[in-house]
Specification:
Elements: H1 2-28, H2 30-60, H3 67-89, H4 95-103, H5 112-134, H6 151-173, H7 181-202, H8 208-218, H9 226-246, H10 251-258
Helix pairs in contact: 1-10, 2-3, 2-5, 2-8, 3-7, 3-10, 4-5, 4-6, 4-9, 5-8, 6-7, 6-9, 8-9
């Protein structure tokens, strides 16, 4: 009985190594790179369209879109994106998440610049679309510190919120759950929950691409640093906490971070 158990564990470990090797080969295949970059651009476009668009449409419609609607919509959009393209690029949609996966050693550093550029491009394209549709209304849905909220308070909030988001993403990814039901619901739910209580403080961005794009298009970068520094620091803290909670990076985490085109889903080990 004991020998059979150890044999099963050895077989599972060997299978995991084979899956990781296949996934790494797939990820390094240049034939797939354009798909991954397109996925990050399109996915971030959709996310920023909803996240920034909520504020813009609320201003345009005289408040028909409530704050609750504005903060829940991005969570639902992220949930949908993970379902339809998580296996293509890992559905990062956020430079802070890409950084976290790289620091966690689930994602190769040489791929980081292209992913971040794609995310910024998608965010700017979405904001330009909103500007063309509605003009410079509602600060184009930009994230700003709330009324009577200092920059330091907004920064601290972004750090804490992003640390929680990164823990949610890395935690579900570590068990091959980021691409699937549990990961999509957990990540989307966290984004909505964070916005429901923290949006009046900092805007609950947690995403440099989401905040930078509206600021760039409307020509006001005065508080943009908050939404770059905060998520970056939060991402690093989230990775440190993940090491404390889970230890070394897993095969499943690499699969979730890199996508798994051509990889048999049924062969994925569960940590």
């Amino acid at each position: 009985m004991k020998k059979a158990f150890h044999k099963d564990r050895q077989n599972a470990a060997q299978q995991g190594r084979m899956v990781q090797k296949q996934a790494s080969l797939d990820f390094l295949d240049p034939a797939h790179e354009w798909r991954r970059i397109f996925a990050e651009t399109w996915g971030t476009f959709l996310l920023v369209l909803v996240a920034a668009g909520g504020g813009a449409v609320a201003a345009k419609s005289g408040g028909t879109v409530t704050l609750g609607m504005q903060v829940v919509a991005p969570g639902l959009m992220v949930m949908a994106i993970i379902y339809f393209m998580g296996t293509v690029s890992g559905a990062h949609l956020n430079p802070a998440v890409t950084l976290a996966f790289a620091v966690r050693r689930n994602f190769p550093w040489r791929r980081v610049p292209a992913y971040v550029l794609a995310q910024l491009l998608g965010g700017v394209a979405a904001t330009l679309f909103l500007h063309a549709m509605f003009g410079n209304v509602g600060a184009l849905g930009g994230t700003l510190p709330g009324r009577d909220i200092s920059n330091g308070t907004a920064l601290a909030m972004e750090v804490v919120l992003t640390a929680g988001l990164v823990n949610t993403i890395l935690g579900t990814a570590s068990g091959a759950r980021n691409i699937g039901t549990n990961g999509a619901i957990a990540v989307g739910g966290y984004i909505a929950l964070a916005g429901l209580w923290a949006a009046p403080i900092s805007g609950a961005s947690m995403n440099p691409a989401r905040s930078f794009a509206p600021d760039l298009v409307r020509g006001d970068l005065g508080t943009t640093w908050i939404y770059i520094v905060g998520p970056v620091l939060g991402a690093l803290i989230g990775v440190a906490f993940e090491w404390i909670l889970k230890g070394k990076p897993t095969v499943a985490g690499a699969l979730a971070a890199q996508g798994s085109l051509d990889t048999d889903d049924t062969a994925r080990p569960d940590a």
